[in-house]
Specification:
By secondary structure, the chain is of the alpha+beta class. It folds into two domains: 86 residues, 2-Layer Sandwich (Phosphorylase Kinase, domain 1); 195 residues, Transferase(Phosphotransferase) domain 1 (Transferase(Phosphotransferase), domain 1, Orthogonal Bundle), CATH 1.10.510. Helices cover 34% and strands 16% of the residues. It contains twelve helices and twelve strands. A hairpin with a 3-residue loop joins strand 5 and strand 6. Helix 4 packs antiparallel against helix 6. The longest helix has 20 residues. The chain is globular. The two termini are 15 Å apart.
Length: 353
């Protein structure tokens, strides 16, 4: 099954759709409202997908129709109600094929739960790291789809502000299709700049957010650049010997090109250079990134990207380190729920509906 999956996804070519329901765009004007009560009355939890400091992401089944969903559970005794309300406000009216949609929201005196559409379960890093090799075309396909989602968010005057591997998740198993998840750090940001708190993963955060300056839509584009660099090198661009050196590297845009895979096209190199600018207004918008030569769907560029093949071992090493650090930071979670972990592609191939 994995060999078949690799054959049909490496080129990024179109394949038969998996029958996923289209987003209900009517919900943009009639957004989801809170439902009083506990989600456990309507959904049965199967396993744990991920865990953060204040929440747990669980796989669950709708008791009425056996539909598999994702339940994001918050203990109101641990998390600030303002944070939950902020994420709910961002999610409730968003409908786009590149953003995991909110289906329902439940709230009681001591807990809150978001019910979201079920994705394949593997983040983009786990997905690529599971392969012996992958192509530049696959990376370009993923980056283009991330930009699709960001273009919609920015049109709605929202910035994600926490783009990192865990928040870019594969939709299914038969083609390279992703969705953005976890808008817990999202804020309304205008083109003129908006003050936001310091949020996001320390390795993926933009210099202006890190230094408590005004955030812009292009603050998300910086994080796209970091994720692109990681997929094209298997390592982080700004990681220092310690936290202070990492902050300095980000603030002064100090990174090295020699870590990028030698097989990478010149266009891929230039795309990364274009994004890593200290001042957000000098970075391209999501729309301008789409127009970049590296992402053009022309026959010549597709063939060039398909010829560039990268071995997955370096990315695999980073993936293991990244997820280990994430697991360590989640250990402070006091939710008290203990569930079977479900995140491997191999497992999802067997149990995905």
């Amino acid at each position: 099954a994995m060999q078949h999956l690799q054959q049909i996804t490496d080129s990024g070519q179109a394949v038969e759709e998996e029958g996923e329901p289209r987003p209900d765009y009517n919900l943009e004007t009639a957004p989801v409202d809170w439902t009083s009560g506990s989600a456990s009355d309507h959904y049965e939890v199967i396993s744990e997908i991920a865990r953060g400091k204040f929440s747990a992401v669980l796989k669950a089944i709708d008791k009425k129709n056996d539909r598999v969903v994702v339940a994001k559970y918050f203990d109101l005794g641990l998390d600030s109600s303002d944070n939950i309300d902020g994420e709910f406000a961002a999610l409730r009216s968003l409908r786009h094929e590149r953003i995991a949609g909110l289906l329902a929201a439940y709230r009681s005196s001591n807990e809150a739960t978001f019910i979201l559409e079920k994705l394949q379960g593997a983040d983009v890093l786990t997905y690529l790291a599971s392969k012996h090799e992958y192509t530049e075309q696959t990376v370009a396909t993923i980056v283009s789809q991330i930009l699709d989602g960001l273009q919609y968010l920015h049109w709605r005057n929202l910035c994600h502000l926490d783009l990192q591997p865990d928040n870019v998740v594969m939709c299914g198993l038969r083609s390279v299709q992703i969705k953005l998840v976890d808008l817990g750090s999202a804020h309304r940001v205008t083109k003129l700049g908006t003050k936001v708190p310091v949020v996001g993963h320390p390795d993926y955060i933009s210099p202006e957010v890190l230094n408590e300056e005004l955030a812009f839509p292009q603050s998300d584009i910086w994080s796209v650049g970091v994720l692109t660099y990681v997929m094209l090198s298997g390592t982080l661009p700004f990681k220092g010997e310690d936290e202070h050196e990492t902050r300095q590297n980000i603030s002064f845009v100090r990174y090295r090109f020699e870590y990028l895979f030698q097989e990478l096209s010149q266009e891929g190199n230039r795309f990364v250079m274009l994004i890593f600018k200290r001042h957000p207004n000098k970075r391209p918008s999501a729309e301008e990134c789409h127009e970049n030569r590296w992402l053009l769907p022309t026959d010549s560029m597709i063939k060039k990207r398909e010829r560039a093949v990268f071995l997955g071992n370096r990315l695999r090493e980073y993936s293991e380190k990244y997820h280990s650090e994430k697991s360590h930071s989640a250990q402070v979670n006091k939710l008290g729920k203990s569930l079977i972990k479900s995140h491997s592609i191999q497992e999802e191939l067997l149990i995905a509906p």
